[in-house]
C-alpha cells in the first residue's frame, strides 16, 4: 500500500517534470527567450502586413485600442510581458501572461491589454486597454496551423492556466481594418503572425 502510494507520487513527479521539460520558451528575433519586464516591439512576421503594434486612438477618447501602425510608418510602442506565475522569468509556450504597453500614459489608465466586449461597430471583440485586474488580461503565445504563417508565433486569449476547469470563449488575435485603421480582435480560427524584437540589448 505504502509502496504503491510512493510509486504513484514518483510517477506523478516524473510526469510533471516531463511536462515542464516539454515546454519551449518563446524566442525573440535574436533567438533569446522572451523575458519578464524587458521591452519588445511586436512586429508582423510578414513584410508589408501593416507595421509595429501600438495604441490606437479610435474615437478621440480614452481608453485606447490595441492596433498596428501603417506598413510604411516608423512608429510602434514597446510592450513588456508579465507571466502569471510569479516565479516564471521567461515566457513559455501555453503559459499565461499579461501584456503592457510601456510608457504611453496619455489616458492616465492602465495600458494592459484586455479582450473587450462585442463592439457594435465592428461586431467583434477588440483588444482594448484600461483595466489590469481581470481574466480578460491573460494571453499566451501559440504556435500551430492556426497561425497564418507556418512556423511563426501568434497570440491567443485564453486564461485557462488561471482557471483550468472554466469554460472560456477563447480565440486567436487577428487584425481587422476599420476605415483604414488596423485593430486587433479575437478570431475563432486564425492568428496574425508576429515576431518579438528586443529593444534594449544589455
Ligand atoms: C518598427 O520598428 C522598427 C524598429 O525595430 C523600425 O525600424 C521600423 O521602421 C518600424 N516599422 C514600422 C512599419 O512601423
Ligand atoms: C499615445 O498614444 C496615442 C494614440 O496612438 C497618441 O496619440 C499619443 O501621441 C501617444 N502619446 C505618447 C506620449 O506617445
Ligand atoms: C465614439 O464616441 C462617441 C461619443 O463619446 C460614442 O457615443 C460612440 O459610441 C463612440 N463610438 C465608438 C465606435 O466607440
Ligand atoms: C507604402 O509604400 C509603398 C511604396 O512606396 C506603397 O506602394 C504603399 O501603398 C504604402 N502603404 C501604405 C499603407 O501607405
Ligand atoms: C490619474 O488618475 C488618478 C485616479 O485614477 C488621479 O488620482 C490622478 O490625479 C490622475 N492624474 C492625472 C495627471 O490626471
Ligand atoms: C494596474 O493599473 C493601475 C493604473 O494604471 C496601476 O496603478 C497599478 O499598479 C497596476 N497594477 C498592476 C498589478 O499592474
Ligand atoms: C457581436 O454581435 C453581433 C450582432 O449581435 C453578432 O452578429 C456577432 O456574432 C457578435 N460577435 C461576437 C464575437 O460575439
Ligand atoms: C505547415 O507545416 C506543416 C508541417 O511542416 C505542413 O504539414 C503543413 O502543410 C504546412 N501548412 C501550410 C499552410 O503551409
Ligand atoms: C468608419 O466609417 C463609417 C462610414 O464612413 C462611419 O460611419 C464610422 O463612424 C467610422 N468609424 C469610426 C470608428 O470612425
Ligand atoms: C478569421 O480570420 C480568417 C483569416 O484572416 C478570416 O477569413 C475569417 O473571416 C475570420 N473570422 C472572423 C469571424 O472574423
UniProtKB/TrEMBL annotation:
Species: Ficus carica (Common fig)
InterPro entries registered for this protein in UniProt: Kunitz_inhibitor_STI-like_sf, Prot_inh_Kunz-lg
Protein name: Uncharacterized protein
Signal peptide: 1-21
Record family assignment: Belongs to the protease inhibitor I3 (leguminous Kunitz-type inhibitor) family.
Keywords: Disulfide bond, Signal
GO molecular function: endopeptidase inhibitor activity
Amino acid at each position: 500500500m505504502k509502496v504503491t502510494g510512493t510509486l504513484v507520487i514518483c510517477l506523478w513527479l516524473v510526469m510533471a517534470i516531463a511536462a515542464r521539460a516539454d515546454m519551449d520558451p518563446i524566442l525573440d528575433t535574436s533567438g533569446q527567450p522572451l523575458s519578464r519586464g524587458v521591452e519588445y516591439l511586436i512586429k508582423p512576421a510578414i513584410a508589408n502586413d501593416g507595421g509595429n503594434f501600438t495604441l490606437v486612438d479610435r474615437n478621440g477618447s480614452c481608453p485606447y485600442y490595441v492596433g498596428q501602425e501603417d506598413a510604411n510608418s516608423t512608429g510602434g510602442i514597446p510592450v513588456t510581458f508579465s507571466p502569471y506565475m510569479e516565479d516564471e522569468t521567461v515566457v513559455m509556450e501555453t503559459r499565461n501572461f499579461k501584456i503592457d504597453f510601456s510608457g504611453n500614459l496619455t489616458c492616465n489608465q492602465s495600458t494592459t491589454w484586455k479582450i473587450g466586449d462585442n463592439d457594435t461597430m465592428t461586431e467583434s471583440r477588440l483588444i482594448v486597454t484600461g483595466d489590469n485586474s481581470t481574466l480578460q488580461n491573460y494571453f499566451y503565445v501559440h504556435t500551430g496551423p492556426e497561425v497564418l504563417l507556418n512556423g511563426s508565433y501568434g497570440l491567443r486569449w485564453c486564461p485557462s492556466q488561471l482557471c483550468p476547469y472554466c469554460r472560456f470563449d477563447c480565440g486567436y488575435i487577428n487584425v481587422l481594418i476599420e476605415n483604414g485603421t488596423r485593430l486587433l480582435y479575437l478570431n475563432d480560427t486564425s492568428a496574425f503572425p508576429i515576431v518579438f524584437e528586443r529593444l534594449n540589448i544589455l
